[in-house]
Design a protein that fits this description.
The complex is a heterodimer.
Chain A lengths: L1 H11 L15 E3 L11 E4 L3 E7 L5 E3 L1 H21 L3 E3 L6 H26 L33 E12 L1 H14 L7 E10 L5 E5 L11 H11 L10 H5 L1
Parallel strand pairs in A: 2-5, 2-6, 3-6
Antiparallel strand pairs in A: 1-8, 3-4, 6-7, 7-8
Chain B lengths: L1 E2 L38 H18 L4 E2 L2 H15 L1 H4 L3 E5 L6 E3 L4 E5 H6 L3 H16 L2 H19 L5 H34 L6 H19 L19 H15 L7 H8 L2 H10 L4 H15 L3 H14 L4 H14 L5 H13 L3 H14 L6 H7 L13
Parallel strand pairs in B: 3-5
Antiparallel strand pairs in B: 1-4, 2-3, 4-5
Helix pairs in contact in B: 2-5, 5-7, 5-8, 6-7, 7-9, 8-9, 8-12, 11-13, 12-13, 13-14, 13-15, 14-15, 15-16, 16-17
Classes of the chains: A alpha/beta, B mainly alpha.
């Protein structure tokens, strides 16, 4: 009952609370035949979607502009550095004219929709759609019109990143301990989610998605950002054998 | 973000609040203007960041209407209402969404939906809506509402540790948040009223808006076989006072103020220009027969049954397509044509309505007349077939 109440309180305020990490969840997948060739493959980084705040005692997300600005700077720097270490060539991400910016905006909105569909209907084993059960199948696309995005002609892939953190306030942590201790009820002490994906700029195909629901690393600090970006870019195609690849 | 209506109102635990009349209430004075707002504390900076992210997305939205004459008209009404200085703090976004709503973000981003523009009969009514939204901004309602929501959910979670009584206390804390939100809406109504007076607009306009919205909502409900509510319903989770309550206190204020000033009816329709017909067409597609029928009759009360309104009514009946609707639709289309309404789409509608009634020859003649005027219509190929015309291009096998 208490959980329902709290959930209702949060849902009514229109703010999502983090679901507890699902067991038996796949975290990454690479489309067959995708290779990152060091010194050759060009990647365009799409402005990441990053939000940082805290979680109030009652579970409300409290946006924090300072933390978010810090995290945006740190993550951007780390992504560039770590991709560089992998030998990836970074392509320009031009803003484009008004029409071009509008197209880019549409794809920034479309990517999370596709990524969430993958997480829900393919990565989550208990909920896998029948058409996604064939071994080796990883078949999602944003459509080939993505080639109209500014800068698409001069890059092979676009990298999309999403990261959201809500650090539990002191009150939230106290409530969590009390809930667990008194009633054995688990409430989320905070939210730390992130995912990253690579999209082929010629075909629009999603060639790689990495979505670990248990993100580590404090994005408000330099060291933490190194760890977080490392996790976001884990299983990057051509770097290390992805667990999903061995599973098929 | 503050909205003018509680759009998706859920009545999970419906309790009816008694509408209270505004006995002895007066319009608050307009405070001195301290310039465009800047975020003051951590919470406010956070809310501004979220609003700024939202705004970046909104700017590229396909629903954004960038047409300059329409934007100039609405901004002109806003500036006359709140004054030139305050007006400069607002970034206005007119969105093509066929429902009655407007909203205000803490950073000065104001959204107005096209469904609101369609429903306003006068410039004064538009002034009331814009004044209400501006009051949310000047009073920093988003920030106060956020703090209240946090306090309420915090209280709710601590109360939930108390056995049995905790449930009631939690619900009480949450309801406190909704009542607070309603109080903010009322404050924005009253402040908005002061702006309408300052702009020299007819003060009864805001009450008129609610009166008509109540009637429209009820007409829609009755047509769907539901009970009319008379705008009295306000649920446990209602973020806004009941429409009837808002109408009552705004009407009382207007009576006190004398309510004689200019409503500017003609200038509103002129301000909408060609968008009026487009917004009307959007409304027809909502599949709200009762509400739309009421709305069309309401427009006809002011301007009479014009050709455009008759053609729209024909579309409404044809799209519903129940027994007898096609005959009614054909009648409305014919009246529209008789009044000299020369939109080719009227002939298309009449042709389709006649064919559905089995009046083959006349229906096909109408579709041919339409195709002469619009040979490149999206569905020209299908219409040619229905009109008994040969396909326009050879469809033989390609080599």
């Amino acid at each position: 009952m208490i959980r329902i109440l709290v959930a209702a309180a949060i849902a009514v305020m229109g703010l999502a609370s983090a679901a507890l990490p699902a067991a038996a969840q796949e975290v990454a997948r690479v489309r067959d035949g995708v290779k990152i060739v060091p010194g050759q493959t060009r990647i365009m980084i799409i402005q990441p979607n990053i939000k940082v705040g805290s979680m109030s005692t009652g579970g409300l997300f409290e946006p924090n502009a300072e933390w978010t600005a810090t995290a945006r700077g740190l993550i951007d720097g780390q992504v560039r550095q770590q991709l560089g270490t992998m030998g990836v060539k970074l392509a320009e991400t031009p803003a484009g004219d008004e029409a071009g910016a509008a197209i880019a905006s549409q794809y920034r909105a479309l990517f999370p929709v596709v990524a969430k569909a993958v997480m829900e209907f393919q990565f989550f084993l208990g909920n896998r759609l029948p058409t996604k059960k064939r071994p080796g199948v990883f078949d999602y696309t944003l459509g080939k019109d993505i080639a109209r995005m500014p800068g698409a002609a001069d890059a092979d892939y676009a990298l999309f990143l999403f990261s959201e953190d809500a650090y539990g306030s002191a009150g939230r942590k106290a409530a969590q301990l009390l809930m667990a201790g008194l009633f054995g009820v688990a409430i989320a002490p905070g939210v730390h989610v992130g995912y990253a994906g690579l999209v082929d700029l010629k075909t629009g195909d999603l060639v790689w998605l990495n979505a670990d629901p248990q993100m580590g690393g404090d994005v408000r600090e330099a060291d933490g950002a190194v760890k977080r970006v490392g996790q976001l870019l884990a299983n990057f195609p051509g770097t290390a054998p992805a667990p999903a690849a061995t599973a098929k | 973000m503050r909205r003018i209506t509680s759009f998706a109102r859920r009545a999970l635990l419906a309790t009816t609040l008694v509408a209270t009349a505004a006995a002895g209430q007066t319009a608050p004075p307009i405070p001195a203007w301290g310039g465009a707002l800047q975020p003051q504390d951590r919470d406010e900076r956070g809310l501004w960041m979220m609003s700024s992210d939202d705004e970046a997305v909104l700017k590229d939205s396909r629903f954004l209407i960038t047409d300059k004459p329409l934007n100039d008209y609405v901004r002109g009404v806003l500036c006359r209402t709140v004054g030139a200085e305050r007006c400069g703090a607002v970034r206005l976004y007119i969105m093509r969404v066929p429902a009655f709503n407007a909203s205000m973000s803490p950073n000065g981003m104001m959204q107005l939906w096209s469904g609101a523009l369609l429903r306003m009969r006068t410039e004064a009514e538009l002034a009331a809506v814009l004044g209400h939204e501006f009051a949310h901004y000047e009073r920093r309602h988003s920030l106060a509402g956020f703090k209240q929501a946090r306090a309420a959910t915090d209280a709710a979670i601590w109360a939930s540790f108390i056995p049995i009584a905790g449930l009631a206390l939690s619900l009480g804390a949450l309801q406190g948040f909704f009542l607070y939100n309603q109080a903010q809406e009322k404050e924005a109504d009253l402040n908005g009223f002061s702006f309408v007076m300052q702009g020299g607009y007819r003060t009864g306009a805001f009450a008129d808006v609610w009166e008509r919205l109540i009637a429209e909502e009820d007409a829609g409900r009755v047509a769907r076989g539901q009970k009319a509510r008379g705008g009295r319903r306000s649920g446990f989770f209602a973020t806004h006072p009941a429409s009837a309550e808002r109408m009552t206190y705004l009407r009382a204020l207007a009576r006190q103020a004398g309510d004689t000033a200019d409503a500017s009816t003609a200038s509103h329709r002129a301000g909408l220009g060609p968008w009026y017909a487009r917004f009307l067409d959007d409304q027809l597609k909502l599949n709200d027969f009762g509400g739309t029928e009421w709305l069309l009759a309401d427009f006809a009360r002011t301007e009479g049954w014009t050709g455009a309104l008759l053609a729209a009514r024909g579309d409404l009946y044809r799209l519903r397509g129940q027994a007898g609707d096609m005959a009614q639709a054909a009648g409305f289309y014919r009246e529209a044509l008789a009044k000299g309404h020369d939109d080719p789409e009227t002939r298309r509608g009449l042709g389709l309505a006649l064919l559905r009634q089995g009046q083959q020859a006349e229906g096909q003649a109408m579709l041919k007349a339409y195709l002469d005027l619009r040979p490149d219509a999206n569905d020209a190929a299908m219409l040619r077939m229905m009109a008994g015309l040969p396909p326009k291009t050879a469809t033989g096998p390609t080599t």
